[in-house]
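Quick one, T. Sequence first:
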Amino acid sequence: MLERVLAEGLLMPGAAVVAMLSGGRDSVCVLDLAARAAGPGEVTALHVNYGLRDDSGEDERHCAELCQSLGVELAVERPSRPEGPGNLQAWARDARYAAAATIAERRDATIVTGHTADDQVETILYRLASSPGRRALLGMRPRDGRLARPLLGFTRDETTAYCKQRGLVWRDDASNAEPVYARNRVRHGLLSELEKIHPAAAQNVLRTAALLRDEAEVLDALVDAEVDGSGGTDRGTIALERLAQLPPALRRLVLQRLADGAAGRPVPGAARFADQVAGLRRTGTAMLDLGSGVRAVVERGILRAER
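Structure tokens:
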């Protein structure tokens, strides 16, 4: 496993790493790989103790003992849960990634997570059901800015075997089996049903996603050509007349790119406004809300997106 990870360049000798460490098998696996690949002194493990379970303290102690045995630094965050209703999993995810980003920026480090091929399948199926658009089918990328996912090519069975071979102990989170969470229902319900239809269902989802990511590079190049400023407009803009001339699919992709660029993150559903934006007046100033705090703005026939 170490040889494959090194060959892919997601972990490198001597490169600073921030490893997300929950204490589960996959995070324990990626932490050990990071320490072996980069060197223990280059690795900082981040454990976020949300205090949501009775055994949260035991998870933290386990992570501390593991890091001591591996010779890596451990950083612990204990965020306070916000008052009132809200998506608990989304809050927890935002809290840990924000903490990881702070450490990574200070150390100019790569953030690594323990996402596996199994997580990839579950993510694709969940997004396919909950958020329309091609992004749902592309899944997680092995590298996304500072973030790297060295285990995406490995299954949970393989990370389990690795931990056993290395004598690494992990803790199981009982909440991963609770059906109240949609991702758990995908894992324990939907996937098992799909495998009854075809035993290679999970592998077929992964192959399809890999093919679509390759094809997405071609589409992204077409979008780049439209918004790179070579047509006489500033980079990140496009003439409204040109947008209207594009094939509908490319028109949607261009608008989505502009919206995502303005927000600094994906803007779900912005592409569906492509035809409306193309129909805005080309004289004076016109605007259209694209959602998520982003709007399309046309000034003197030139389209851009802004917060």
